[in-house]
Amino acid sequence: MFSVIWQSPWVLFGLAAVAAPILIHILVQRRAERVPFPTLRFLQPTRLAAIRRHVLDDAALLAVRAAILAAAVAALAGPLVITSAGLSWERRIVRAVVVEDANTVAGVGADLGRPPRAEQAPPLHLTREFVANSLPDGIRRAVAWLEKAPPARRELVVVSPFAIGSLTAADVAAVPASIGMRFERAGTLPGTRTVPAGRVLGTAGVLARDVTLEGVQTSVRESAAADPAPWPIEVVHAPASKPAADAAVAAVLSQRVWAPLPGRHARLVIVDSEKGYDPVSGVSASPVRTPWIADAIARLIRDDELQTAAAHVATGFGDGKFSAVPWQAVALAADGRPFAVAAESPDRLVVLSAAGPEYPVTPLLMRSLANGMGAVPDLQQGEVAPIADRLLREWGRPAAVPSVPAADALRQDEGENDRRWLWLAALFLLGIEMWMRRARSADQEAREEISRVA
Predict the structure, then answer these.
(1) CA gap 405, 142 in Å, rounded
(2) What is the pLDDT of residues 285-313, one digit of tens each?
(3) Are strands 233-236 and 266-270 parallel, antiparallel or unpaired?
(4) 441 and 72 Cβ atoms separated by less than 8 Å
(5) For residue 408, is pLDDT > 60?
(6) pTM score, two decimals?
(7) Residue 413's closest CA among 123, 83, 162?
(8) What is the DSSP string of 160-214?
(9) How many angstroms separate the Cα of 63 from the Cα of each of 10, 24, 26, 141?
(10) What is the pLDDT of residues 132-141, one digit of tens each?
């Protein structure tokens, strides 16, 4: 049992070129053969007649030339002959093993690099291990490798202690349904762990946080940081609004915000149309190109509390220039126009607000802006509670049998020997054709020599 898959089937139209040698054999003008004769005086004179021959005088040579063209065209079309032995991809398995880096999972009590439980059937065709600092990143790399692997059943094995948050249902759903998934719990999480939890900025200055996780309980300890961090937002407002602006800043600091990273600053310009204060003309703005500024704007847009409070602002900016580049709307007022817009200035993030400092939305805007410039810690590395076994079993699934592998995958699995065999056949036939032509020429020369002798 076998089948043929053509990688470039449109090239088969070139088989029409096989007609070329046939036409050449038919239409070529043959030279009359000269035969030496001692005398013509005893021959009866007759009328000359032109006769055109349309018969093939060397069918073997013609067949060889046509076969050369057919072999070359078929080789260019890229045939892939799949035999019954090559149709065994459904009985094989390609496995990618994602192992969470033991250095990342501090305190784990077992080796994470141990191989998963071996399965006897189906036979393991190919395997590769991916060591990752985070499981989602390792899964993405493993899936990319599996999709390029030879035809087989594909399986993804994840080895980890599976702390809560290390893997989510969204990460599992991102894996194609044709790839099976199996989860191997390796190592034990510690009962208690203390990890740094970033720095916050409050009324007393900068505080360093440490979080202690013990089972399902969490405790936070704060201590004064050695290096101070100033308030990172320059607030530009009408002189009469200074008390309200200072009160908004104090309200934000009383609730704590993430301390800003070095070199990150922002300018909040409050346009107070009711007081006739409009300092926009002196603001330098350009399209956003700095990554941290883009991230801070994205956090403003994702702040649900800010968006809800912005909807209670009656009117936004009436000037249409604030709805075009370089400005980007981060919150809309009740009338659907931008209440707050953001852009990049030479050394900082600049935000324009259409609400005065006394509006309740202003402290929320300041808090979201400050948190957008801070470093939010990743506490997942300190988690001590594991993902439930029940959930891991629900996420697992068997490896699906591929229906019909793609031609590219089959080419990778079976190789390109079929194409090469056709090229070798064409070269072999070309050698035969050269030998036949030389033999024919030698025979013709021998007949002419015999005629001259006669």
Answers:
(1) 19
(2) 899 999 999 999 999 999 999 999 999 99
(3) parallel
(4) no
(5) no
(6) 0.56
(7) 83
(8) E--BTTSS-HHHHHTS-TTEEEEEEE-S---SEEEEEEEEEEETTEEEEEEEEEE
(9) 24, 13, 14, 53
(10) 988 999 999 9
